[in-house]
């Protein structure tokens, strides 16, 4: 089986994430795709504003009807800083016979060489990246053994930080993320 993992803070989840997930599922013929919310993403410790519970609830609300998208709460249960290598060791033990793919936005590529235990990580998973508008994919530091694939995705210019800023400025989130996520953000008064 081919299994993909899209890790992130999902603060909040938006259509950029969901379309990226679908693009990769389709183009790489994945059998399963897990969204993996981080307890604390290593390189942006101060950006996340909502609790683990809120971010997980929004992800569930966004995907509960879609059997193709699964959520792994492994990093949330583990807590602390969510290093991908720790999660991938766990997933590799769980799915020893399968091909594992870690999905990232192109903005992550220049930082990849700084990820924890990257030389072990590249042995355990293949990487798939998607370009993002306004984030030109820069040449990245060569990483020995990196298996890197490009997904020809839809180039959706949405980011979680942009949506948090919109809420703060009293602007609507309509058409940026699923209606149920918007209703949850309003009911919990998030990002104000
Ligand atoms: N619009 C998008 N298109 C493609 N990939 C995306 C998009 N938005 C996020 N990603 C990727 O999804 C993963 C998780 O993203 P994350 O949850 O940090 O959201 P974000 O929108 O990048 O957040 P922020 O604006 O707070 O930095 C990252 O690898 C990121 O590059
Ligand atoms: O393992 C690392 O060192 C590492 C460094 C930076 C980012 N990541 C992972 O990349 C994913 C996206 O991170 P971010 O910063 O865009 O929320 C998320 O799953 C992080 O855990 C992982």
TrEMBL record:
Enzyme Commission designation: 2.7.7.18
Catalytic activity: nicotinate beta-D-ribonucleotide + ATP + H(+) = deamido-NAD(+) + diphosphate
Pathway connected to this protein: Cofactor biosynthesis; NAD(+) biosynthesis; deamido-NAD(+) from nicotinate D-ribonucleotide: step 1/1
Keyword Transferase: yes
Keyword Transferase (UniProt): yes
Keyword terms, alphabetized: ATP-binding, NAD, Nucleotide-binding, Nucleotidyltransferase, Pyridine nucleotide biosynthesis, Transferase
Domain of life: Bacteria
Record Gene3D superfamilies: HUPs (3.40.50.620)
Record GO terms (molecular function): ATP binding; nicotinate-nucleotide adenylyltransferase activity
All copies of domain Cytidyltransferase-like, residue ranges: 6-166
Gene Ontology BP annotations: NAD+ biosynthetic process
PANTHER family: NICOTINATE-NUCLEOTIDE ADENYLYLTRANSFERASE-RELATED (PTHR39321), PHOSPHOPANTETHEINE ADENYLYLTRANSFERASE (PTHR39321:SF3)
HAMAP family in alphabetical order: NaMN_adenylyltr (MF_00244)
Family from the record: Belongs to the NadD family.
Summary of the function given for this chain in its UniProt record: Catalyzes the reversible adenylation of nicotinate mononucleotide (NaMN) to nicotinic acid adenine dinucleotide (NaAD).
Protein name: Probable nicotinate-nucleotide adenylyltransferase
Organism per entry: Oleiharenicola lentus
High-level lineage: Bacteria, Pseudomonadati, Verrucomicrobiota, Opitutia, Opitutales
Gene designation per UniProt: nadD
